[in-house]
Amino acid sequence: MRLIVSLYGWVAREALFRAVKAWPVALATIAYALLIELVGRLVSPLGLASGFILGFLEAGCIASYLYLLSRAVQGSRLKLADLKQSFGAFFWDVIGVLFFLWIAGWVVQFAERVAGDHGDFIAAAYGLSVAVFLNPVPELIYLGRGRGRTTDLLLESGRFVQAHWTEWFLPNLLFGVALLALALGRSAFNFETLSQTLPALFSLQTGYSLGNSLARFSDLWALPLVLALVHYAMVFRGLLFQEITSGNWKSRAFRARTR
Length: 259
Description:
This protein is mainly α. The chain is 78% helix and 0% strand. It has twelve helices and no strands. It has helices spanning 2-21, 28-43, 48-74, 80-89, 91-115, 119-133, 137-142, 150-184, 191-197, 210-214, 223-246, 248-258. α3 crosses α4 (80-89) and α8 (150-184) packs antiparallel against α11 (223-246). 29% of the residues are buried.
């Protein structure tokens, strides 16, 4: 337990420094959400084609955000050149994951119809499974540990969760509760809201749609706080993932105890 506390303490301090250093990344979610909203209105008359256009645009925005986030986690200052190359860096990795989720979604919808009264259970089980076992997919993409075939990336994500679920999900749940409290106030603290939004809040499945929901918050004064918290949480996640997978935190904690 002492090692875990040491891990969280180091990551929390380092994430604060790196998040402040790369503060423009905090605005990326809002900027890309507004871009998708604008393009969506422009291409809506195109019918089926509009869905493909928006799908590729969303993948590009997610890829760009993950690239900028990778620079933040590395502790680098952002440059204009980073934005220019950000859209293509992880584009096909994101496309692969989104395509998998799209196909899986169709399969689940078919299973819901076949299952009849048990359809809701199937949908809930699928949503929870994706939210849990694919939660670290963003970190696997931009830290390069799961690059390659989509199936390999997804399997690696599942293995990571099985091996490190305790140290990974504890801070994610705390961040999620704090974010929902800021965004929704007292209404966040009911079982239905927590069960539907908390598991997948920072995952690739629904994490990016958070940017779209930010604009609909009733208390606009909370918007800067929510942006700051999301930015800090994502940098924290990246550093935590690095520390867990590299094992550096154990050696660092051991050296601290022997001083």
